[in-house]
Amino acid sequence: xxxxxxxxVGHSRADPAKYRRAGxxxxxxxxxxxxxxxxxxxxxxxxxxxxxxxxxxxxVMADVVDTVLAAPEPxxxxxFRHVYAxxxxxx
Length: 91
Fold this sequence. Notes:
Layout: H1 24-30, H2 33-41, H3 46-70
Helix pairs in contact: 2-3
């Protein structure tokens, strides 16, 4: 087996991931695709690029959350709108 992805944290907040071998996490962190891509795009300061992208992402997500929280509550009948079922003629 040749895994292509790796979880840097345990399965949950309560999981300290003690089942890992010594050095395993560090090996995988060195292969982090985001860091490798950032280094290829912006070799002088890849960590700065990642931090900038993370800041922009957090701003966008905060705006999304604000929009959703400000939206009116849907009506119960709305939960059946835009639901696809094979053989259904309703959309």
